[in-house]
Amino acid sequence: MKLERIIAVRTSKTVYRDGNLCVKVFGDEYAKSRILSEAATHAKIEEAGLDVPKILEVTKAGGKWAIVSEFIEGKTLERLMDEEPEKRGEYLGRFVEAQLRINSTKARGLAKLKERVEESLFEAGLPSATLYDLHMRLESLPQGDKICHGDFAPSNVIASSGGADYTVDWSRAAQGSPEADAARTYLLFWLNGEIDGAEEYLSLYCEKSGTPKASVQAWIPLRAAERLASGRAEETEFLRHWANVVDYE
Questions:
Q1: Which of 4, 35, 97, 222 is 20 to 30 A from 179 via CA?
Q2: Partner residues linked to 6 by β-bridges
C-alpha cells in the first residue's frame, strides 16, 4: 500500500489515494474499537443501498489503523460550488436531494440519535437550567427511524464521474429523525461562515421534503449542545448561543 498522495487531512485523520483505493489512516489517539465501529457503521449504510464507497478492509498502514474503501473519481460538491459559483443553486439542490435520499432510508443496527444527543448533553458544560430545558425539549421530539448522516456537508458529497453523488465520512451516522440531521447541517453551514447559505439550505430542504421549518429549528439547540460537548474551543461561544433555548426562541 502506497501512502503518498494525500487527498484530505482532518483532525487526527489523513486520507490517501492509492490507485483505485481510498485509505483513511487514523491517529494513535483513536481506539481500535472506535475504528472498527466506524467501519461497521459504514458497512450498514452500504447494505442499505445508498451511494457510498464500498468498504474493502480494516488494516494497519505504517503502524496505524486504517479503513480501506473504493476511491470515487470526482469532485466534492463543495469544490464545485467554489469553482462554479454561478451554479451554486444547482449544486445546493443536488446536495439537498442526496440528503433526502439518505433521510428516507432505513438501516439496521445503527446507534439511536436521541440517545446519543442525550448522552452528550451531560458533557456540554451548560447551566443546569439550560440542560433541563434541553432535556424536556428532547423528550418531546420524535425518535425517528431513518438514517441520519450526522456530518452532512458539501465537502462530504462527491459528484462522481459516473453521474452519481456519493456520500462519505459516516462515522457519526445514526438512526433518528430527518429533521435532526437537517438541523446539524444547518449548523455546519453557520460554523463554516456561510450564514446566507445556511438559510438557503434550510429553505430548500424544507421545500423539497415538505417539512415545516419549525420542525428542523426545534432540533438546533440540541444539535448545538451535542457539538459543544466535543470541546472545540473556537466554536464554544457560537454554540452556547444556539444551545440556549430561551435566547433561541
A1: 35
A2: 16
- Burial of residue 86, with CB atoms counted within 10 A of its CB: 0-12 exposed, 13-18 middle, 19 or more buried: exposed
Q: In whole angstroms, what is the distance from residue 168 CA to residue 81 CA?
A: 18
CATH, domain 5-70, list 3.40.640.10, 3.30.200.20, 3.10.150.10, 3.40.50.1780: 3.30.200.20
| CB neighbours of residue 103 within 10 Å | 23
Domain ranges in the chain are 5-70, 74-244
d(CA 154, CA 244) in angstroms, rounded, equals 27
The string of pLDDT tens digits covering residues 9-26 is 888 899 999 999 999 999
Q: Is the dihedral of CA 23, 24, 30, 32 positive or negative?
A: negative
Check residues 153 and 5 and name the one with the higher pLDDT: 153
Q: What residues have CB less than 8 Å from 135, skipping those under 6 apart?
A: 118, 121
CATH for 74-244 is: 3.90.1200.10
What is the pLDDT, as a whole number, of residue 247? Answer: 47
The secondary structure element, H or E, covering residue 14 is strand 13-18
